[in-house]
């Protein structure tokens, strides 16, 4: 269910008119719906309620503390990939024993922080990382539960830049090496190997790659058990996609059924790391039309949001649904629609949100909403072109709150120093 709907002629987030937020906050801004977050989390959790499962929200999808706290209060843990995300998760109220630390390049200081905070699990992605963690545990005299992330050599079929389970990708340990590494870990005084992990990529809209990866995970787990190793926990990662264009995608129950079919007989605790499927549809990016520029082949709608605010279209070539905030009747849409490019003000040709889009006639100063931007939107924003860092707003019923302020040029300049020779 969507909680971004037209009411009284304009788009609302739950029961808050978007225009009211825009008048107080200015544009561009991200807007998140609490009810959408809650309903998407509930749908995922309900699908897993027959399993021994822990849901660790992938903080990288949207790391705002208010968002993470909303999920923590629903019972979610956290999957983190940096010390900063770990600190955010703890600040948001996630219990340490519900935090998993993933990522291929954990530093000694990050590993030490994870040990000091006594988190649930560290996912090991290489032999050198295991050796580094062993050194850190010895220096601190603290034990670590670890799972070994495997590289199943499975092509997820998603975008090349977000596929993580192929041999040529940097993630995980090759399957033939897992038994050897697991055995090495059992000889280390403060290392407790408890399981395996797999994650093959993001925005998967087909269950077939999941099945291939989970079957390889099953084979490795049963092989290790046959060797006498105890496998207590399997981390099956995340990656379940959402629909950006209305095309069908697997549901949470369908995904859960697949997990049961492939891994259910192992009687292990299961960790899930959903991100986009929880938060993606919970957010919109609101922007204002600065100029309507007529060109020889199409019209350009130049808006005040840019690639620095929302990178996915430029980075991945994605096109999100875009709506006028002011509702237009079907007759007006049909009669007044034209071919438009919706572009930003950054000095890059790639700064665009839509190309050759059939779009209703809009005027300067009108507001637009770019949908399904809750995941990998604000977290990937930057200050390129010395533009302000975009604010974030959280809505609950008929209330809203700014959960990240707009960070302007004065603040940014405050971080910089001019050397005395200048």
What's the overall geometry?
A: globular
The oligomeric state of the chains shown is: single chain
The radius of gyration is 23 Å
How many domains? Answer: 2
CATH homolog superfamily of the largest domain: Alanine racemase
| Structural class by SSE content | alpha/beta
CATH architecture of the largest domain: Alpha-Beta Barrel
Descriptive tags:
Lyase, Ornithine Decarboxylase, Chain A, domain 1, globular, 2 domains, nine-stranded mixed sheet, 422 residues, TIM Barrel, alpha/beta, eight-stranded parallel barrel
Descriptive report:
- With 422 residues, the protein is an alpha/beta fold.
- It folds into two domains: 4-32 and 280-413, Lyase, Ornithine Decarboxylase, Chain A, domain 1, CATH 2.40.37.10; 34-279, Alpha-Beta Barrel (TIM Barrel), CATH 3.20.20.10.
- 29% of the residues lie in helices and 25% in strands.
- The protein is built from 13 helices and 21 strands.
- Strands 4, 14, 15, 16, 17, 18, 19, 20 and 21 form a nine-stranded mixed sheet that branches. An eight-stranded parallel β-barrel has the order 5-6-7-8-9-11-12-13, surrounded by five helices.
- Helix 3 (65-73) links the parallel strand 5 and strand 6.
- The radius of gyration is 23 Å and the shape is globular.
- The termini are far apart.
